[in-house]
Design the sequence.
């Protein structure tokens, strides 16, 4: 039984098939006329509504056109899930199937017919997007008859499908560089000209300009490789045809033919006089628009510097480069150009653009990069490498990127239950993952744009990776603004000149302005020097302003295209206002839109980082279906450089070209409209992610925080806080918990114990992040609430938290006071504080105040309430400091037991922070006891190395003093001096002052040992003058010894003995007289 479609077309037989369709011969049920039916099933298409709408629009336009070389479109039908495109029936074969039946000049004549047809279509606003030999048919009966088919079908193709393992190369042998999805370029009629050039090349030579069965390699060749002259494969081809074909295949659109009319004119000229082997081509080419997206100009020095950095990466030395400048200087464009310059078959580039909307999404750049990489580049080989180097860490990485579970399904070990251990593994796990990715044959270039908008955890992770990635082929290229608030956010990276190559972009030099303007306008744009000077002086060499002002000159009629040449209206130029403010420039661009267009664009601006036509249409909701209108506006705004399609993403995903556009558009909506559309955005995400709400919680919170729906905002902020904690993102957990706390504080009637605990949690997170003074602000708010609640446990808690804050500030007196008060309150309530940390911290305070007996009591209690499964950090610190305490008190056996327990733990410690503390504590034990100086030095060296990698400067600083004492004991005085100076530089630069007196005590001993008695005594006297403020009395004893030695050497023995008596008294008062530690300090 014959299949009939919609009672109108009867299918006769199948005559072909492709990757996305089947082709049938059919006939009209009413007239019997033959037609071709192309059948599609579009269930998996991305952004389906927009793709179908665009396809429908194009079908509608083309069906109303008539050209002898364009297949006539008759109908477009849907039946169930199937779609049918109906065209005239044309009996013929495509160019690939019959290349040998044509002479050279017949081939050139056929390509001219293609060019004529494409000129006709381009003038109607249509771009083919998939021009190739398969889509050009030549008549079976008349070989001079030609038809171009399959207009608009590129809209229905899925770009991401090409990266699947079983993908067919197909169209990728003919697509332009800008169609690959790897470059930030417009797709316009010049893209068709490139594809026509690739088709022309194959038709002349029997082979495409670039070929590979590997799509990645094929894309690279389109982007970066120069094609071989066609005449190298076919000696008949004259030089002028070589030149024409190679011009069509230029990488930069502005260097190709700008119109099919120009191409047709040159082909006609050749066909009229085939004996002409050479003439100047493109003289009749037609310029129809400004080239806003041009090849970069005047940045060779920066490109070359980045190439040098990349050369190191190719040798297995990972690098990080940071491009920064004010807005408009072309950071993003330069990064894009660098990518295009260095792309090879062994280079892959990944890109992410941060925005204000993603600032509080933990690890957003890294999640996107991992998603992009795993979706496009993952092979069995890479998967095996990841398992080899990062396999133990994958369960932890699933907490920030759940997609890993699907990739390694059935392979992952059971997740770690200990949250502390999981947190410790995260940065190390990402380090191992990137190491595994960078160990292959490819260089991996990761471009992170507008990094000043990244979340704080991602910035810390970037710093960590820059320090610690070794022996792999990964390059991070970061782009950042340099306004004051932007520079503040990337301080961590700007202060890393060793591990981050910092490059500041300046304005273009005046000498590059003529070339820049010429590329914008195309050829035929030569002006007087005074014009170029005017452009330079009014743009200060900033690329953004050069483009905007040239465009404004054109739009205002001062710059005109006449007879295919650019002309200036000098009178108009004299009164023209040159723009030098980005925000004003954006306002000017937007002023060309009507109110309805601005409304739709403003809704897009509220969505955030990226948007699609479908989402805008959904948000407009009750304002009726405006899909066709929205698409028209998107296209118009793309032409005006307001909107860009995101390269490498799913089709039809857009973003705004500049943050200032979003800023300007948001101001155009009323408060009521903003409320309405922000709620709509949030509800849309809630509906979409209802079964997995955590995947969208940060975006939902972002939208509700901009509405008056405070309950929803509170709910999602609390959920975002909990999710951020699960992702070990302290910075973003703080952000969301602040919003939660402020909500509770605003409603005085609802303040209760939960409010106080929220403030406590917030203060704790701030302290862990080093924001101690800010933590006190929230503790002060809690302190105002606590008395009215009459809960003594809250009194205990708040004192413990104040104490912790002062401890971190090295204010040991206040720390002790608060901890002591907390302990007394606990005693009064008959409550035993059963957590080890307060005892560790209070014991530490007492220890550094040289109250050793009391300190030991607290350390023992900390050990009692600790276990290595849940409180490993506390076990390490308590045993470590207790070993020092027992050592100073002469309890050597107990000290040795503490240290032995500590050393047994070290092999199983995975958290670098705890490793640091363990090695540091044990190194001090060995140096102080004098048992083993080599082990002391080895452990302090490990402390130094791990703390440097983990960016833990306090322990880097602390390790150096132990190393200095080892050098001092060994008589290596110059080395000791160098190490001390390094520690003091850290202290000065980063304001680390814990135990700084010990540094100067050691320094005075070094000078004493070197025989520089005056310098040694100068330091000793300075600190003895303020000895009452020094809580750690062993440092005071050292200063006394140095001063006494100085007096003795200068023949003042009685005065020297007097000072030594004072030292003995300190020993007696502190209990230190019970041991032989004096032998260490009094070593000469």
Sequence:
């Amino acid at each position: 039984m014959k299949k009939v479609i919609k009672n109108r077309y009867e299918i006769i037989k199948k005559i072909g098939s492709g990757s996305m369709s089947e082709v049938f011969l059919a006939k009209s049920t009413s007239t019997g006329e033959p037609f071709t039916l192309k059948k599609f099933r579009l269930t998996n298409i991305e952004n389906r509504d927009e793709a179908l709408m665009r396809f429908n629009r194009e079908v509608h336009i083309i069906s109303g056109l008539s050209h002898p070389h364009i297949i006539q479109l008759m109908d477009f039908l849907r039946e169930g899930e199937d779609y049918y495109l109906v065209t005239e029936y044309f009996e013929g074969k495509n160019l690939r199937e019959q290349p040998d039946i044509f002479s050279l000049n017949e081939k050139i004549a056929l390509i001219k017919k293609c060019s004529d047809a494409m000129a006709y279509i381009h003038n109607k606003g249509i771009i083919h997007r998939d021009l190739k030999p398969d889509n050009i048919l030549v008549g079976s009966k008349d070989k001079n008859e030609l038809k171009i088919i399959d207009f608009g079908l590129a809209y229905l193709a899925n770009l991401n499908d090409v990266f699947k393992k079983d993908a067919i190369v197909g169209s990728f042998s003919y697509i332009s560089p800008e169609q690959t999805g790897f470059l930030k370029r417009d797709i316009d009629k010049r893209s068709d000209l490139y594809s026509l050039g690739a088709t022309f090349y194959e038709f002349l030579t029997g082979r495409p300009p670039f070929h590979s069965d590997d799509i990645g390699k094929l894309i690279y060749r389109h982007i970066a490789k120069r094609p071989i002259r066609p005449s190298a494969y076919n000696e008949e081809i004259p030089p002028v045809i070589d030149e024409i074909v190679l011009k069509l295949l230029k990488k930069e659109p502005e260097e190709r033919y700008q119109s099919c009319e120009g191409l047709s004119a040159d082909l006609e000229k050749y066909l009229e006089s085939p004996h002409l082997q050479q003439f100047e081509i493109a003289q009749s080419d037609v310029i129809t628009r400004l080239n806003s997206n041009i090849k970069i100009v005047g940045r060779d020095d920066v490109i070359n510097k980045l190439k040098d950095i990349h050369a190191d990466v190719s040798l297995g030395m990972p690098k990080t480069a940071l491009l920064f400048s004010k807005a408009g200087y072309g950071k993003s464009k330069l990064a894009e150009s660098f990518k295009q310059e260095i792309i090879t078959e062994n280079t892959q580039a990944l890109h992410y653009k941060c925005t204000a909307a993603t600032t509080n999404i933990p690890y957003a750049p890294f999640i996107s990069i991992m998603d992009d990489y795993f979706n496009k580049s993952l092979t069995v080989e890479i998967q095996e490498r990841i398992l080899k180097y990062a396999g133990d860490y994958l369960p932890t990485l699933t907490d920030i990127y759940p997609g890993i579970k699907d990739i390694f399904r059935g392979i992952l070990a059971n997740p770690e239950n200990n949250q502390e251990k999981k947190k410790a593994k995260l940065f190390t796990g990402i380090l191992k993952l990137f190491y595994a990715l960078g160990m292959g044959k490819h260089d991996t270039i990761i471009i992170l744009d507008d990094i000043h908008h990244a979340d704080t955890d991602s910035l810390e992770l970037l710093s960590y990776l820059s320090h610690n990635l070794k022996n792999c082929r990964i390059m991070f290229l970061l782009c950042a603004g340099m306004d004051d608030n932007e520079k503040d956010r990337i301080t961590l990276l700007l202060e890393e000149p060793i591990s981050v190559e910092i490059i500041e972009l300046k304005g273009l030099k005046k000498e590059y302005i003529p070339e820049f303007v010429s590329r914008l306008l195309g050829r035929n744009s030569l002006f007087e020097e005074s014009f170029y000077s005017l452009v330079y002086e009014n743009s200060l060499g900033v690329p953004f302003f050069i483009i905007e002002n040239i465009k404004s000159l054109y739009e205002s009629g001062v710059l005109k295209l006449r007879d295919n040449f650019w002309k200036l209206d000098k009178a108009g130029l004299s009164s023209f206002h040159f723009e030098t403010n980005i925000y004003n420039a954006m306002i000017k661009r937007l002023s060309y839109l009507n109110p309805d267009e601005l409304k739709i664009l403003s809704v897009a601006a509220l969505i955030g980082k990226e948007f699609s036509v479908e989402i805008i249409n959904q948000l407009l909701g009750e304002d009726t279906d405006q899909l066709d209108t929205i698409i028209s506006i998107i296209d118009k705004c793309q032409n005006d450089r307001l909107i860009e399609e995101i390269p490498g993403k799913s089709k039809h995903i857009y973003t705004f070209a500049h943050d200032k556009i979003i800023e300007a558009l948001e101001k155009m909506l009323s408060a009521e409209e903003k409320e309405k559309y922000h709620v709509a955005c949030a509800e849309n995400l809630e509906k979409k992610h209802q079964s997995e709400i955590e995947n969208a919680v940060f975006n939902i919170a972002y939208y509700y925080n901009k509405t008056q729906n405070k309950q929803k905002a509170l709910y999602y902020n609390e959920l975002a806080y909990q999710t951020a904690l699960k992702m070990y993102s302290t910075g973003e957990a703080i952000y969301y918990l602040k919003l939660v706390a402020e909500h509770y504080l605003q409603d005085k009637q609802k303040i209760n114990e939960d409010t106080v605990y929220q403030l406590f949690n917030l203060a704790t997170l701030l302290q862990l992040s080093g924001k101690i003074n800010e933590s006190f602000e929230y503790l002060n708010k809690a302190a105002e609430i606590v008395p009215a609640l009459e809960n003594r446990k809250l009194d205990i808690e708040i004192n413990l938290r104040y104490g912790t804050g002062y401890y971190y500030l090295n204010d040991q007196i206040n720390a002790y006071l608060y901890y002591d008060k907390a302990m007394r309150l606990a005693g009064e309530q008959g409550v035993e504080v059963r957590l080890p940390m307060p005892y560790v911290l209070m014991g530490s305070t007492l220890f550094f105040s040289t109250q050793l007996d009391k300190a030991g009591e607290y350390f023992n209690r900390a050990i009692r309430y600790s276990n290595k499964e849940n409180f490993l950090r506390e076990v390490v610190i308590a045993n470590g400091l207790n070993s020092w305490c027992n050592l100073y008190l002469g309890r050597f056996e107990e000290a040795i037991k503490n240290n032995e327990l500590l050393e047994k733990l070290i092999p199983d410690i995975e958290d670098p922070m705890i490793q640091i503390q363990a090695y540091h504590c044990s190194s001090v034990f060995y140096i102080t006891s004098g048992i083993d100086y080599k082990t002391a030095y080895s452990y302090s060296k490990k402390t130094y190395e791990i703390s440097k990698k983990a960016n833990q400067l306090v322990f880097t600083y602390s390790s150096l003093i132990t190393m200095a004492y080892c050098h001092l004991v060994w008589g290596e005085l110059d080395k000791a001096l160098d190490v001390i100076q390094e520690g003091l530089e850290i202290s000065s630069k980063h304001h680390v002052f814990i135990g700084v007196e010990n540094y100067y005590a050691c320094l005075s001993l070094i000078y004493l040992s070197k025989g520089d008695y005056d310098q040694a005594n100068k330091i000793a006297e300075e600190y003895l003058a303020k000895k009452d403020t020094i809580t750690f009395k062993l440092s005071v004893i050292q200063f006394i010894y140095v001063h006494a030695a100085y007096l003795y050497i200068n023949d003042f023995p009685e005065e020297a003995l007097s000072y030594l008596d004072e030292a003995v008294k300190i020993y007696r008062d502190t209990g230190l007289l019970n041991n032989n530690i004096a032998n260490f300090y009094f070593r000469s």
About this structure: The longest strand covers residues 9-17.
